[in-house]
């Protein structure tokens, strides 16, 4: 088994993942108990209200800020800390080591996004929503939500790895991203500003609160901006790794 695959498996069977699944299950059960089931013949307003209610319980911005992002970062740090050892880097080669970490972050981003949305989908179906018909606004919104989740987690993971590389401290990889998100959230509340914070956009809170699930041109623009940020993080880390002297760092340890 390749190293990065073994590291991913270690993350999946970790206590962190178990705790996350228990919390996710609790939110799922709470949503089923709190949200009324749709009547057999439901109009579009009733269906939209159901979607809004489910998302507000299981995928609101506060849950991303204080549950989903921290859990994801703990999984990333667990994998990176196992893989972020200078002998491992020197043995693999910097390029291969970086690609294995990128693969790990991408895999965890896909995994967490899928788990969140599978629980959301199960809640919606059990509550009577069969509105994922091809071409419907609900399918478009669901796929958009899934994709923006993946990109959001990927960005957070890349920022965490950047912080770890620049500070050489594993724990800062979780502290710095969360502190930055909390700081921006606090500034918005203090200024009573109208802008969207990162976790609000990733959670689609702005769409859920307005009840407008249709995609707009601004959504595509912001997704493009997120993808550009991913590319910038990738190249920034790549440049840093090329310039870092790991042989000297390893000799300084002895």
UniProtKB/TrEMBL annotation:
<feature type="transmembrane region" description="Helical">
    <location>
        <begin position="138"/>
        <end position="164"/>
    </location>
</feature>
<feature type="transmembrane region" description="Helical">
    <location>
        <begin position="170"/>
        <end position="191"/>
    </location>
</feature>
<feature type="transmembrane region" description="Helical">
    <location>
        <begin position="65"/>
        <end position="82"/>
    </location>
</feature>
<keyword id="KW-0472">Membrane</keyword>
<feature type="transmembrane region" description="Helical">
    <location>
        <begin position="12"/>
        <end position="32"/>
    </location>
</feature>
<feature type="transmembrane region" description="Helical">
    <location>
        <begin position="220"/>
        <end position="241"/>
    </location>
</feature>
<protein>
    <submittedName>
        <fullName>Uncharacterized protein</fullName>
    </submittedName>
</protein>
<feature type="transmembrane region" description="Helical">
    <location>
        <begin position="102"/>
        <end position="126"/>
    </location>
</feature>
<keyword id="KW-0812">Transmembrane</keyword>
<keyword id="KW-1133">Transmembrane helix</keyword>
